[in-house]
Amino acid sequence: MKNTKLIVLVLVVISAFLGPLLFSEIMPGGDVNTNLIWGSIIVLAAVVSMSTSLILEKLDELKNK
Hints:
Elements: H1 2-26, H2 32-64
């Protein structure tokens, strides 16, 4: 599971940097705030998925006891 956490962390960092760049290419008229909002949404989605996986891991541990 530690490898999965590392992979998710790397993906969060990559999406934080590449997300606004990607959306500035898709929406060329967008201002900086729009790109920051989209980047924040990407990071938030990654954090939610990571916390969900941690919760499911804890539930599995409790179920197996």
